[in-house]
Amino acid sequence: MSDKQLGFSTLAVHAGGQPDPATGARVTPIYQTTAYVFEDVDQAASLFGLQAFGNIYTRITNPTTAVLEAKVAALEGGTAGLATASGHAAQLGVFHCLLQPGDEFVASDKLYGGSINQFNHSFKSFGWNVKWADSDDLSTFEAAVTPKTKAIFVESLANPGGVVVDIPAIAEVARAAGIPLIVDNTLATPYLCKPFELGADIVVHSLTKFMGGHGNSMGGMIVDGGKFDWLASDKYPLLSQPRPEYQGIVLAETFGDFSFAIAARVLGLRDLGAALSPFNAFLILTGIETLPLRMEKHCANALAVAKYLKAHPKVEWVRYAGLEDDDSHALQARYMPKGAGAVFTFGVKGGYEAGVKLVGAVELFSHLANIGDTRSLIIHPASTTHRQLTDEQKTAAGAGPDVVRLSVGIEDADDIIADLDQALAKI
Ligand SMILES: *Cc1c(COP(=O)(O)O)cnc(C)c1O
Q1: CA 271, CA 274: separation in Å to the nearest integer?
Q2: CATH code, domain carrying 242
């Protein structure tokens, strides 16, 4: 059976995996090894020279991790995956392949707060310069592109507000500029959104969130869409120029439609070192088997909670793309019709004090800085993740004093709502 004909739920269970060739074990074993014995000197030489595929050292490849890479690539409809130690390591790995010091990239300003920090601070110290654009005003993407721009970066379903980004429109800007569009598909997952079908060239994930789905393992993934022509310009020398350490091969010529994933592995992982632990790969693989079931429940629960909050007298506003009068609803219906995800924000009447009281009064919800767990999670950004900002900066970042963010879990909707109800009654 070819993977292409199988449905999403079948791929979530089966793609990438097979009974263990050595033992028959049905579930992918944890290959908890650092290195692999060479067959002979010639095989070792061809592995090191990239003339044959095989395992050398777990920083670069591992059989458990390889199943995870193949599974996520199949779910996204990409050509190859490259697993990393975290979502941030995936972003570092992508930009390491694309940018030289002094280069620029354009990013939507509606991003996970950690990505805003990574781009503004650490990336700048590498000489990689971010230009921010506004996903509500597409002309700002075009305006931010210069001859030094090497990529555009957006989130499909943007953290923390659950804002849906118009990927095809931004892909058009990238295509006109001859640069790849990178989409962070963490909040949507490929169950809700398929960025490659909408024009993305590279997908990145924090597997830490809904993909792993159980709040127990950090992980990241780069997925190669396989369509971008790295040889069309001289903008991407890591892919288009001969590699001196690999007998002068040109990665984009030798590896064709999965050359970006190869570059991120044999240059990025090799030198930056942020490899995923095989144990985490195993846990995330187990999590992904139930991704479709979990996402359906997450979305149904989130919609029920959003509707409940919208009607509550102590709630000022709710921002959830699944609500019919939400600004993002039309884009959500077009690009992710199966649901609007589980992460959204609302404003509580009474501002900062009320927000602090609410997160202190919940019992079923956990007050913590994460999303995408089976459990329902809550945070008040103004008193936690965004507390160092001024009030104006908080509001601009979507983290005003009254804002509460939920990641709705897969418990019974009635219990989730009852917990919010008792907590709201206390403020
Ligand atoms: C959490 C997150 C990241 C970073 O991933 P880590 O696994 O925490 O490094 C990146 N993007 C989004 C949208 C996230 O939610």
Answers
A1: 9
A2: 3.40.640.10
